[in-house]
Write the structure tokens for this entry.
Amino acid sequence: VETVLALDVGGTKMAAGVVGADGRLLARATRPTPDAPDGEAVLAALLDAAAEVRTGEEVACGVGSGGPMTAGGELVSPLNIAGWRSFPLRARLADALGVAVHVDNDAKALALAEGWRGAARGERDFLAMVVSTGVGGGLVLDGRLLDGGDGNAGHIGHLVVEPDGRRCACGGRGCLEAEASGTAIAARTGAPASAASVEERRRAGRMVGRAVGSTAALLDLRLAVVAGSVALGFGDDFFAAAQDELERTARISFARGAVIRPAGLGDEGPLVGASAVAWRALGHAILVTGT
Ligand SMILES: [Zn+2]
């Protein structure tokens, strides 16, 4: 059976998996992301996770990584991995693994996964979001994953939701990521996001709902699926507040009826998404248009 190696690069952990052409995750391994200024240590952790799962039979490697990045993941600069600034991820992985490597933004990879096998299966127009250490997003419009100029389209974490809000790692102020990410919540409350009060959970939900409302109006879409440890960990308090704020803000006729749903693939989403980056590059149909 044909498989690909899937790698997920996150600010907290690195994951590797082996995924079949039907999207089934056959093996997985994780490593903590080294909190080191040295980019080589970060790459070594990723390759160590890969070595644990790979059989050598994989036909390609797909990677989801935090952004920003240049097109095709040639140079990645994830905001929450200080050791990687313009790091040549695709080329370094191709050298180390000896197979073709295809890199995309992790939230765009998740959008592929959710449209392929998850909560947006078969949908032509939707936003997929990750609310965890950071906040990211990917957009499917007219059945196609949007790339944008450098491949960062859909990066909803840097929509401004509080004009006088907190400083963001991007240099801006009041971005969704600076208000609702796990990092931001920990900085606001002085405790890990997992210990956040009901009111903090609702506040994060409101911020996400606000950003989704603007996106729904901008792009004429009516579905957002939300993944990530913060959103899924906050559960109903978060999702109910997000839906309320979406309905309060997205008033134009075509955006009414928009819904925010938990992502369908749970903690398999990032690796299934990374695999979808590779399967798509190999010509497999992932979204409704076949791309
Ligand atoms: Zn920002």
Observations:
- The radius of gyration is 18 Å.
- DSSP finds nine helices and ten strands in the chain.
